[in-house]
Amino acid sequence: MPDVFDTERFWQFSLKTYEKHGVKECCLSLQDSYGVDVNLLLLCHWLDSQEQVLSRQTLDDLIALSTNWQTKALVPLREKRATLAKGSEAYGFALTEELKAERQEQRALLALLNLADMSDEQQPFTQNTNCIAYADAARFPPGMLTPLFKGQH
After folding, report:
1. Per-residue model confidence as pLDDT tens digits over 117-146
2. Closest CA to 125 of 47, 58, 31, 29
3. pLDDT of 151
4. Using CA atoms, how far apart are residues 141 and 19, in angstroms rounded to an integer?
5. pTM, full prediction
6. Which has the closest alpha carbon to 137: 68, 55, 74, 72?
7. How does DSSP assign the chain, residue by residue?
8. What is the rounded CA–CA span in Å between residue 122 and residue 108?
């Protein structure tokens, strides 16, 4: 059976969303202030755009995977890049490695999501259900997500 959630579609959605006015700043602020995983936030937003609702258990599983990935892979890469001179060849290489790790994390998140039983645990969809649930779990005010939601239907 093919995967329900396609990694390339999610990656393209993430790139397009991240380019929107104010989204990058919003995401980085949440990452720096609350430890939010931008990939997981974008996944919640992507699922909201498809009116797919995560069960609390699936969200908890995604958060656990995310926390592990952030701790072991992404934070060390970010810290190393922060020590390098912006614009240098080493900085560019470090940024490329970080983006590769971000994409790998997205694949891991979707692999877990594709194993989840979404049909048994459906909750009624309301606008931004998954993003708001993630905000609650990560303990940040959902109002901080406004730039992410601009331009939604």
Report:
1. 765 455 666 789 999 999 999 999 999 999
2. 47
3. 60
4. 22
5. 0.91
6. 55
7. ---SS-HHHHHHHHHHHHHSTTHHHHHHHHHHHH---HHHHHHHHHHHHTT----HHHHHHHHHHHHHHIIIIIHHHHHHHHTSPTTSHHHHHHHHHHHHHHHHHHHHHHHHHHHS-TTTT-----TTHHHHHHHHHHT--GGGGHHHHTT--
8. 22
Separation CA 4–CA 17 (nearest Å): 21
Percent of the chain with pLDDT over 70: 90
- Give the C-alpha separation, 124 to 67, whole Å: 27
pLDDT, residue 4, reads 82
Cα(123)–Cα(4) distance, integer angstroms: 18
